[in-house]
Amino acid sequence: MQNRAYAKLEIKAVDEAKRIITGIATTPNVDRVGDIIDPMGVEFENPLPFLWMHDHSSPVGECRFSNPTAAGIAFEAEFVHPDTVESVTLKDRLQLAWDSVKTGLVRAVSVGFRPLEWAFIDGGGIRYDKSEVYELSGVVVPANADALISGVKSLYGATDIDIVKALDAEARRENGIPDFEILVKL
Fold this sequence. Notes:
This protein is about 20% helix and about 35% strand.
C-alpha cells in the first residue's frame, strides 16, 4: 500500500546559492480526503529523496526531517544545482523545479509513505498511527487545504545596496523597517 499525504509548505528561507528551502513536511490536520497522519508515529531515515511531483524518476535533491512533534515535522530540502550536472535534461528539470518553488508556482509538499498501523475514522478517512515516510515531493495541489507557502525569503533579485541596507540597523530604522522584517525584505 503506497500513499501520499500533503502538508503545509511554509518556506522560511530560500538560499539562492545553496538552493535550500525549509518548511513543514506533515501535520496532524485532516486532509481533503479525510485522512490523518500522526507525526509522532512517522518513521524515516535522513536524508530522504526530494522528488518532483511524486515522480520517482524525477529527483531534484534531498531533504532532512527534524524530530517529529505533535504539531508536525519540519524539513530542510536542498535542490541539486544545475551547474553541477552535465545532462541537459537533468539541468532543465532541476532549474524548472527550483524556479517553480522560488516563484511560488509550487507552494506545497507531499510525503510518500507506507502505512504501518492505521484505523478507519468514523465518517470516513483513515488515521495513520504509524507510517514509514520514504520521500518528500514538491507538488502543486495539496490534499491539505492549508498546504500553501506562507512566505518566501530570498536574496534573489536584491541589489547589493538593498542587502547592505537590510543588514545595516541604522538604515533599517531610517527606512522604518523593524528588525523582525529583515528576512522578509531580503
